[in-house]
Write a structure and sequence with these properties.
Number of strands of chain A: 31
Number of helices of chain B: 7
Structural class of chain A: mainly beta
Shape of chain A: globular
Shape of chain B: globular
Structural class of chain B: alpha+beta
Oligomer: heterodimer
Strand content of chain A: 35-45%
Helix content of chain A: 10-25%
Distance between the termini of chain B: 80 Å
Strand order of the largest sheet of chain B: 1-2-4-5-6-7
Number of helices of chain A: 3
Strand content of chain B: 15-25%
Radius of gyration of chain A: 23 Å
Largest sheet of chain A: 29 strands, parallel
Number of strands of chain B: 14
Largest sheet of chain B: 6 strands, antiparallel
Largest interface: A-B, 84 and 69 residues
Chain lengths: ~400, ~375
């Protein structure tokens, strides 16, 4: 009897303790009205502090038309803004039309659409910011964790993104961009640079996404991308299933893609550690491969001026091509015993002069030795008639763009 | 006895602990940034009545001297709200005519838009509840937006900065009861739509929208003509009949399907989906004079639609509304998918039907 009592009391004590622990995690409060008011009434130069705590929002919080503002939480694992069950707007935090906006030390969760969207900001910094969709990654998650678009001088530093159904850290149609020291996992695309002019991605870890780092150019937009450098990153085990809603271009990315260039001009990929991605380490593809119509005389679907050197690519257990996607099946058919690490689809721009199976300078596709990585030009333009695995034609002097300065 | 007590406490605790921590609490305390509790209805004290737009009693919305009512041929859909619009120009000043954009209003102009719901939509002149009055004030450099929320007594409206939510119900056109948690926008949300090249701007009063008959208190007249003849508008030298006129989206007499669909998309979407609007990064433009097929969405792939794509390939798939992202987003009420993004909690059944028909007959 006494034993039973002791057991029961300890059970109660334990439960009380664990309940209080759990309650601790869900002491939700709302600061929606006061934060929105603060955003609306902020004077240029203000710092808006959001104290430690869990805050729930029914709608988008929006900073519009302000300059020199800092939005600061108490820490990535201290201040949480949750948009779970939001009723209005699709973004979590929206930042539009301004100069020098900084967001620090905060976590945003579970918006219906993008967690942080920034548009038309000159001088935008995210530091120690986490964006995440909790639970099993799924198609219903919002598209982008970080989504600066049409911005200038963008820095995303020491930040993390998890669970985006398109890209975790995405910078689109912007100028002068740095993404560094960031971590992205369980997104369809870990880090994506799309139609940007001058962007550096370095010292990042992209793991367990569908595709690790993507450099894409899309037609019919405000600008075409160029001068993107991807270096010193770890791109590991990006074999996650593709859970992007169909119709989105990243829905085309095969699981097991390390780094992919699509239709962008002037890209340098060097000094990266690319490991255990089951389909391909680095892919260079033209928009022709996507087979989507477009109507944009300024858009060039062919990647040009590409430099790939000094990367370390290992296949781990994935020596053989995968059955799991079309590219994998194709590689399996063409390279049954040992798949390539670096792949060029082989579509050349007929408008630009070629010599010996490559463009003439400065448009060449240059692939260096890359620590023994296997290369293939799969000649998709001619139905894979003339696959080339030798580097001779692609052995040329890489470009050397200056570092991005903000 | 104690044992039972202890056991029930245990059971209760297990039950309480088993509650999903992610589950919505019944009411989340609203606090300010210092953690102090605040009243949810923390309204600003500025009153609409002070501005003197309307004769007393204010709720009749009977304009004071110098306040001129107007309407648009095809207005924006806002959750079935009725709207009463007025313009007040500064003493002795005129707006300048513009052929394609909104009239060039002088500094000091105020556009006044009242949102109300009749108790019974089948008797729109009967009892009604006015929810809010939105102002656009031309401050010279830029326009400023303000929203005033009416009290239940309908005797006064108060300026609200950070939005407000109001429960409203009415008897719909078909006799059914409808309910809505109506949203008054925050000041930023106003700019979310009223933005042209990043400047706050009016959207509605363009020549093509104003070019229609209106029943004024003493006369029925074409609005452009009335404005010209009454010293509100300068620079209109053409004959009214030569000017563009937007058809009434729901009146087949006023224009063919294509014209009415384009009018509807222009006023409901093009404030963002145009080259000078916030959605210019999408490459999808629905402005009235847009001619490029891809820009209009025909066989155009989405850029950053996320799950707004609905698993579909094209913004508009001619002949196939059910395969068109445009239609998919218009029939959605999910904030992560729906279009427009703001000012919509209900699907505009009749409006989306028009778009459906338009896409269906494309070849």
């Amino acid at each position: 009897m006494n034993h039973l009592r002791i057991i029961l009391f300890s059970a109660i004590l334990f439960l009380l303790y664990s309940c209080s622990e759990q309650k601790e995690g869900i002491q939700w409060k709302s600061i929606e009205k006061s934060l929105n008011t603060k955003f609306i009434k902020a004077n240029d130069g203000d710092t808006i502090d959001i104290p430690e705590g869990h805050y729930k929002f029914k709608g988008t919080i929006w900073l519009e038309g302000k300059n020199d503002i800092t939005i600061r939480g108490a820490g990535m694992d201290k201040t949480f803004l949750s948009f779970r069950g939001q009723e209005e707007g699709s973004e979590g935090l929206k930042i539009t039309n301004g100069r020098n906006i900084t967001v620090l030390d905060i976590t945003l969760q579970d918006s219906k659409g993008d967690l942080i969207k920034a548009q038309k900001i000159d001088g935008l910094t995210f530091k120690n910011v986490k964006t995440e969709w909790l639970g099993e990654p799924k198609e219903e998650n919002g598209a982008y964790g970080f989504y600066p678009v049409d911005c200038d001088r963008v820095l995303i530093d020491n930040s993390t993104s998890i669970g985006a159904s398109d890209a975790g850290i995405y910078v689109g149609q912007s100028r002068d961009v740095i993404v560094r020291n960031c971590t992205a996992y369980h997104n369809v695309a870990g880090i994506e640079i799309e139609n940007c002019v001058r962007a550096d991605v370095y010292d990042c870890l992209a793991h367990e996404n569908t595709g690790g780092i993507l450099i894409f150019d899309m037609p019919d937009l405000t600008q075409n991308g160029r001068e993107v450098r991807v270096f010193n990153n770890k791109v590991i085990s990006n074999n996650y299933r593709n859970f992007a809603p169909e119709g989105n271009i990243v829905g085309e990315v095969p699981p097991g893609t390390g780094i992919m260039v699509l239709a962008t001009t002037a890209v340098e990929i060097f000094d990266n550690e690319i490991d255990r991605n089951k389909t391909i380490g680095i892919a260079i593809a033209s928009y022709k491969l996507v087979q989507k119509p477009y109507d944009d005389p300024d858009f060039n679907p062919y990647p040009k001026s590409i430099s790939i050197y000094n990367n370390t690519i290992s296949k781990g257990l994935f020596q053989f091509p995968t059955f799991g996607n079309d590219l994998g099946k194709l590689l399996l058919f063409k390279f049954p015993f040992s798949r390539p690490d670096i792949l060029f689809d082989g579509f050349f721009d007929p408008e630009i002069e070629q010599k010996d199976g490559n463009y003439v300078a400065p448009y060449q596709i240059c692939v260096g030795e890359n620590n023994g990585a296997k290369f293939a030009n799969i000649d998709a333009a001619n139905d894979f008639a003339n696959i080339i695995t030798e580097l001779d034609q692609f052995n040329c002097e890489p470009t050397n763009f200056p570092a991005v300065r903000l | 006895m104690l044992k039972y007590f202890v056991l029930s406490v245990l059971a209760l605790l297990i039950y309480a602990c088993a509650q999903d921590p992610g589950k919505e609490q019944v009411a989340i305390e609203e606090v300010n940034l210092d953690g102090e509790s605040i009243e949810a209805s923390d309204v600003e004290a500025e009153k609409l009545s002070v501005l003197g737009f309307f004769k007393k009693p204010m709720k009749n919305l009977e304009p004071a001297e110098g306040v001129v009512p107007y309407d648009l041929a095809t207005p924006l859909f806002s959750d079935y709200a009725f709207k009463a619009r007025f313009v007040k120009l500064p003493e002795g000043k005129m707006a300048k005519y513009h052929p394609t954009e909104t009239m060039d209003f002088p500094e000091g102009t105020i556009l006044i838009k009242n949102f109300y719901y009749p108790a019974d939509f089948r008797k729109p002149e009967g009892e009604r509840r006015i929810l809010e009055t939105r102002l656009l004030i031309n401050e010279g450099e830029e326009w400023k937006a303000e929203a005033y929320v009416w009290n239940e007594e309908q005797t006064e409206a108060y300026l609200v900065i950070a939005g407000e939510r109001i429960n409203i119900s009415w008897v719909h056109y078909d006799g059914t009861e409808k309910q809505l948690n109506y949203s008054v926008p925050t000041q930023n949300q106003c700019k979310g739509c009223h933005s042209k090249s990043n400047k706050m701007m009016p959207i509605g009063p363009t020549s093509r929208q104003l070019n229609k008959q209106f029943d004024y208190a003493d006369v029925s007249a074409n609005q452009l003509k009335y404005w010209s003849e009454n010293g509100l508008l300068a620079g209109l030298h053409q004959n009214i009949s030569e000017l563009d006129a937007v058809p009434l989206w729901d009146d087949p007499e006023s224009g063919n399907l294509e014209q009415r669909a384009r009018a509807y998309l222009d006023i409901n979407c093009a404030h963002c989906h145009r080259a000078e609007g916030p959605a210019n990064t999408s490459g999808f433009f629905l402005d009235y004079y847009q001619k490029r097929k891809t820009a209009l969405g025909i066989y155009k792939s989405p850029i950053a639609a996320g799950r707004g794509s609905g698993g579909l390939k094209y913004d508009i798939h001619p002949g196939k509304p059910d395969s068109s992202i445009l239609y998919f987003r218009m029939i959605s009420e999910d904030p992560g998918i729906m279009m427009p993004e703001l000012g919509k909690k209900m699907v505009h059944t009749e409006g989306v039907e028009l778009i459906r028909k338009w896409i269906a007959q494309m070849n």
